[in-house]
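HUMAN:
Just now I want nothing more than another pair of eyes on a protein record. I would be glad if you read both lines and explained how they fit together. I have put the entry right below:
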Amino acid sequence: MSIAVDEIYEGVVTGITKFGAFVKIDEKTTGLVHISEVADTYVKEINDFLQVGDEVKVKVLNVADNGKVGLSIKKAIVQPKPQSQESRNDRFENKLAEFMKDSNEKLTQLKRHQEGRRR
């Protein structure tokens, strides 16, 4: 299997060190998940998150010229895309337009009521 940067693979944790975990992706490829790439939270002790034999999804961050593979577990987790600024603006503008319409209707009713009292 050819390993490609930015691709997500299934792997098995084969070793744990103080600085990360080694994950075997296929028969020929083992990469390192640095401790900073294990979780979105601070990882003081890697054994609190991973054990040898755990199956994990990893994203390939880089493949060095010497064949070393950098992996990430936290980036392999598909995050829901944040709502785009454009859709938030559209929602705000729709609410504003609805408010303006209601406000104008109330002003028109108020003016009619006041004109009727003056006669």
Summary: The first strand starts at residue 8 and ends at 16. Residues 13 and 23 are 4 Å apart (CA to CA). DSSP finds one helix and five strands in the chain. The radius of gyration is 28 Å.
